[in-house]
Write a structure and sequence with these properties.
- 2 copies of one chain form a homodimer.
- Chain A has 212 residues and is of the alpha/beta class.
- In chain A, the strands form 2 sheets. Chain A has a 7-stranded mixed beta sheet. In chain A, strands 1-2 form a two-stranded antiparallel ribbon.
- In chain A, strand 8, helix 8 and strand 9 form a beta-alpha-beta unit.
- In chain A, helix 1 crosses helix 4 and helix 2 packs across helix 3.
- Chain A starts with 8 loop residues before the first helix and ends with a helix.
- The interface between A and B is large, with 61 and 61 residues.
Chain lengths: 212, 212
């Protein structure tokens, strides 16, 4: 498969959506789908679908439709590689950390939750998704032993600022960042996926207040 | 202030980030900032900042820098209108619903949580953020009495499909959607802000596996 050297972020962000729709189609027993039908279901255009797929060599079959399972398999390979899951730690075991832990430990997303860290001693004898919660000061020795690749930050902005540099120095390559600290500015070589829930709500508010 | 008729979604989605940075700058006592300094802090370009601001009439002061508090106030007016909060209901009081409820009920985001609904009877005598949890079958009468404007969907895909049409018919204008149901396809006139956490994790995985 010929993958473009640098696929743009909007295209990458649409891949999981294609994968979801193809998974649903496959579960419904559909064997083939055209780019225009897929586009219609997803609320986009056939031209957008074809352009997106062309970034990865096109996945063949244009004109006669795509084979659903083949297409799902190809996009799955892009998203999940050879199936080896990315070992991941969660920083912050509060309400949000607990809620998102189920996405990390879910088989279908490509991650394996191996450690949870917090500063609240009341949590140290507890578990999240079957993974014990450690005191934050054990982070360095844990990373030295288990080499996690991804860190999920479910902590306030200042705590994220305090811990991000250490995590990078301990070998973390990617962040799923729920804090309001834009760490990609300070660490441009690190891969960061931000989920700014407050920002998301505010932009919904803008659209409701200004565009109705 | 001259607002363009239709501001593009990427610009709208950056407004909360500007607001956050300006809030931090204001808290630090900064009085003025240039577009290039603001851009540098945020990891973008001065030209992007000026282009974004031009969608709203430019907020004046180019060349001599923006007054931090004035700029923060103008962007705040766009995001929060006259300060009246959007009355909001939460569908789904599980882990995720509990975690995101704090964002809805937080004073600073522009919303007011007035009702929570679930199908789990074990939750009916409980509260989230001081708001009682109702059985889902009370949704219609609740909406008829209190006229919520926004619904937050923290339920699985099928439950979202089942409830979305009713919510639209009960007068809901906007959705903060955590389910894997892309309801904007079926209801194009409704304002939807999607937070697909699984998609977010998968696209992080793509970048870590293919672009390192």
């Amino acid at each position: 498969m010929a993958i473009q050297n640098k696929v743009s972020l909007p295209v990458i962000k649409r891949l999981p959506k294609y994968y979801r729709y193809l998974t649903n189609l496959s579960a419904e027993g559909r064997e083939k789908i055209s780019s225009s039908e897929l586009a219609h279901m997803m609320g986009t255009t056939a031209s957008q679908v074809r352009q997106d797929f062309n970034c990865f060599g096109g996945f063949g079959q244009q004109g006669i439709g795509y084979k659903v399972d083949v297409l799902r398999g190809e996009i799955g390979k892009l998203l999940f590689g050879d199936g080896e899951r990315l070992s991941t730690i969660l920083i912050g075991a509060g309400h949000l950390g607990s809620a998102v832990s189920s996405f990390i430990s879910r088989d279908t997303n490509g991650y394996r939750l191996i450690g949870v860290f917090d500063i609240n001693p009341a949590l140290f004898d507890k578990e999240i998704c079957g993974v014990p919660i450690h005191p934050l000061h054990e982070l360095e020795s844990f990373c030295a032993e288990y080499h996690p690749e991804v860190a999920v930050l479910c902590v306030p902005r200042q705590s994220a600022i305090d811990v991000a540099g250490s995590l990078v120095s301990y070998g973390i390559k990617g962040f799923w960042n729920f804090s309001h600290y834009d760490l990609s500015v300070e660490y441009p070589d690190i891969t960061v996926e931000n989920v700014h829930l407050g920002d998301s709500l505010m932009s919904l508010g803008y659209r409701l207040r200004n565009q109705e």
